[in-house]
Fold:
Amino acid sequence: MNRFHACATCIHYGIEKRADGLYTYCRRLGYATKPNYRFNCWTPKPNVKRLMEKEAGKDES
Structure:
């Protein structure tokens, strides 16, 4: 896994503002989660994909 792999960088990560505070969850799985958790179903957001590709390009140079 790479340093970007975390729930907060996934397309399925959701946040809801509730009376008792913020509720973070996985829209796909329906589980409550935290930004730094990791699951195998991770699909990075487009901006995260670009950052990963940019870093991979630096490694090849």
Q: What stands out?
A: Helices lie at 46-60. The mean pLDDT is 91.
